[in-house]
Amino acid sequence: MSRNLSYINLRNISITDKLFGHYIKKIGEKILEHQWDILNDTDGADATYCIRNFRIAAGDIRGKREGVVFQDTDLYKWLESVAYSIAGGQAGAFEERAEEVIDLLERAQEEDGYLNTYFQINAPERKWKNLVEGHELYTSGHMMEAAVAYYEATGKTKFLEVAKKNADLICRIFGREEGQIRGYGGHQEVEIGLIKLYRVTGERKYLEQAKYFIDERGQKPNYFAEEMRRNDFPEFFPEFMKYDLEYSQADKPPVEQSEAVGHAVREMYMCSAMADLAEEYDDKPLRDACLRIWNNMVKRRMYITGGIGSSGFRERFTADYDLPNNTNYCETCASIGLMMFGQRMASVMGDAGYYDVVERALYNTVLAGINIEGDRYFYVNPLELVPEFCTEHTYMMHVKAERQKWFSVACCPPNVIRTLSSLGQYIYAKDDESLYIHEYISSSVKEDIGGVSYRVRMESDYLRKGDVSIELDLSGEGKVKLRIPYFSKKTFIKLDGKELDGDVKSGYALIALSSGKHKLDISFENSPRWIAANNNVRADSGRVALVKGPLVYCLEEVDNGDHLSEIYVKADEEIVETDDLSPVGEIPLLSYDGLRLKSKVDKDELYGEVHFDKEKVKLKAVPYSQWNNRGNGEMSVWQKIII
Amino acid sequence: MSRNLSYINLRNISITDKLFGHYIKKIGEKILEHQWDILNDTDGADATYCIRNFRIAAGDIRGKREGVVFQDTDLYKWLESVAYSIAGGQAGAFEERAEEVIDLLERAQEEDGYLNTYFQINAPERKWKNLVEGHELYTSGHMMEAAVAYYEATGKTKFLEVAKKNADLICRIFGREEGQIRGYGGHQEVEIGLIKLYRVTGERKYLEQAKYFIDERGQKPNYFAEEMRRNDFPEFFPEFMKYDLEYSQADKPPVEQSEAVGHAVREMYMCSAMADLAEEYDDKPLRDACLRIWNNMVKRRMYITGGIGSSGFRERFTADYDLPNNTNYCETCASIGLMMFGQRMASVMGDAGYYDVVERALYNTVLAGINIEGDRYFYVNPLELVPEFCTEHTYMMHVKAERQKWFSVACCPPNVIRTLSSLGQYIYAKDDESLYIHEYISSSVKEDIGGVSYRVRMESDYLRKGDVSIELDLSGEGKVKLRIPYFSKKTFIKLDGKELDGDVKSGYALIALSSGKHKLDISFENSPRWIAANNNVRADSGRVALVKGPLVYCLEEVDNGDHLSEIYVKADEEIVETDDLSPVGEIPLLSYDGLRLKSKVDKDELYGEVHFDKEKVKLKAVPYSQWNNRGNGEMSVWQKIII
Prior knowledge:
Two copies of one chain form a homodimer. Chain A is of the alpha+beta class and 643 residues long. Chain A is built from 18 helices and 23 strands.
């Protein structure tokens, strides 16, 4: 069975958007270079040892391998970003450098296909012996994703051959046959890589290996439980030492799972692979498990910003409706994983609604992960912050009051970049007869679908007026499926000046097109409005958040002063779109009236008589994704209501 | 220089109070027996190995030493409780058992005085080599406290000799002389033990050794920094591995410290010793440091319940005004430490005001540490709780929704018991010419002060009506100093039926008495009232708490339903004392009107249109210390106000 939706090669997509185009331009101009310096320890900051580790593994230099056990993945994600950027036309200059690195990888790879600098250099005797923590399969998965991306961008096969050789080794090592290890990776990811490798090479054994990893996970006797007993555990991550099987979604087989649990990124990467496999195998039980986990997550465990992972400790999911705003994790990578999962669910289910969630994650948490200059990153994304409470060595140590240059565990920065540089594949997709438009981000695409050539140019004012204009040129009869976002209560679509009736099925408006040139004019309703949370979300009880289209807004100290906890608004307060625009993307800032309530307890006392002062204030909100771009200070998404 | 205040031997004090008497009776009837079973692994629960470890050390049996590195202290605190309870007349039956255990200690002690089952059995080569984590000096300190208590209760010296022998060893090992270790304990406590040993034996070297430990702490070169570099660190507590010197208040000398930082119990035990030493040595710089730390704590970093330690991670202080209500730690032991520090500050400063804080901790957090049956304990004391959010392996893993039978690190249960069994010393004190009454807890005392015999019987209705009646019988002229609590805006004192003018100095009303019988009738103003927090406490912004006298009240699900986050009250709402009484102590429950605000977002959605329902409700509040005695459920101290 084939897939409902296929991706379009990024070589065929060009992004011109005011908001996203800004970041994509930065990637080619600056970010890839900057990350390259970091990987090479030539940026003057703390050494990452990333490239150096590969040089040691290749025998170019001698030394001890340094950095976290999965440090290699930083390079793989960089290569993946370079590949997407080459395809997108922003990174031609990096191809030569990429080639050199790929040569290095080839030389570092062992005869049998093994490639992992930590185990090769520091602990060859420990290969495949600490699956629960060692991240070997995870690292291989990122190599595969990068190799597939590089092949699709350049048509060159050397990196793909390295990845295949590694994948072949994994297929030999892991399985249910005599002499094979009946294990799977502690941090899911290899499954995604193997599926991509299958799709690009057509070699079915890679798909079957991915299926094996998902099917075998959590079976009894439990591989991780046995391994933990065997090992001198923990080896790598002492802070996670009271490891639970649920943490890596290995307490029971994925097909039996029903809730979003454990480490959020692991969960999302696993579910992405599950959704792919459900589609490839037409596996209803697996698809149902995806649906159960998805529904539990988006209806019980997801922030309004598309952030996931309520626990600041261990980067993980907690319980239904437990969504604290200031101690949360909401790892940037987890929301990227949510985008990946949602993108695949839209294909499995043939439903555009999944993109409502993809969009929520993209426009809020994922974009918040990087500053507008493109040289600082958030790993953790709080919805409420008081800078002076973010203290080291305490329960708040994971929350940073400002974006950081890099991290000792640096999964997020290159993950944001590979996501933004592959954004085209979240905007457009295709099936045998239709072009799908999922996101309204100014761009153009050319693609042959069912023998018909489509040339499309989209001009979007999605975030401001809600208007989108799409010019199309088809070589024959064709179809376009437009996603209608959940927030648009009234959507008007005109084809060549004539209003369509707007029949929407599974979240899509289907537009049949004759051969030749056409113009679609779409108008989405995206006026700003207040949103409340489910009554079970204790943290948001008696609070409202401000949204406009896909954007969640927040208050920042720079606009509204400090002590944002003093602020109250009427639940139906009128919202005004101001002429002030956001730092990037020309998004209007929003203004409204509110109250400040100050306790007058003496400054030298902690507790005292009740006396509150009220003061009327004019408030100004900015898109959450752009907070902390105008200096450090307090920030708050959910605002208390006046009752 | 002698101390301003001296303790009164507990043999001379008898407690009859409805509230505290309940617990003290339980200690003799049940708790000591129950804890004895736990220490002996005969209670059917998880083994503690506590007594067994001493048997192994004494050579009675063979085996590996089990439990946390400071497990010995559980027995010492039990012995200390037994001693106080023997003195108080509740535990005569335990004296024989205590004698047997003391014999065991004597046999387990090594020739040179060393006594610590972990290092004796498991790691003799590591003695005194991991001061920052190893808790050897901490364990010795608890032995000394227990030995002094046992001597004061029974007059028997065997245990005291064991402790002295151990203290003598410590005096030889640690110091600034050639061949001595120039270190100090990672967890302060030995200082308190040494000072008590000095006071009971008169041997000044113990006092000087305590002074050395405080003076040397944090000096450069930093002992802990050097030790951490030498050691394969961490050895015992991997979750604390990114150890910072501030964590154990060793980043600079105590005399230079100004804020309540790091691990809360360590800070309180250190400050208690500092206050004692400031008084013994009339050391103004040390006293000023105590004052600075005290003021920072009570004006910036203390919960309304007298809880301290805002960080659920690492049991520690965080930043000024950072007082989250649900993720906090507020360890029971930390509030016990606060009582100890406050008790000593009242003596150093000659000011009753410190007892306002002692009382806050005692009546709220410390008493909350134990259930009314006396067989379950809280280690962590949240001010707001939703049971289903207290999930394992997450940021909430430290918070338990119900009191626990015991803990693998079991510092709190025996600490509560030694505190309650020595409560008399928080009620009464003396100087050369006066009897001090600090707490209004029904009890009697007989004591000779300045050659005059005082016989006193106090009947207190402090928590209900605020009335206290004290009968006194003096053999000559004398003085009583009554602490006037901060909350009593109008205090009436009658001596033998005649109203006194009530001149209050340093928080005390001084009552001069002639020889013979007298009666004091005191009436404190303790009507229930609403309290607000300092505006900088973001967590309590727009909230009020209900107090009556020293008691903080809270709402519980059993009385008010779940979803307490929905509840709003008027900041000046009238409070009614009901006829319902608290489970113990006959304290009136309080009632008032409020609103429930429910978000009507569809139950299958997380976020949606703003629509709130309002409903009038009648609310009922119980003393915080008695929450979770009528089943599990939500609880909340701070309530949102209607504005």
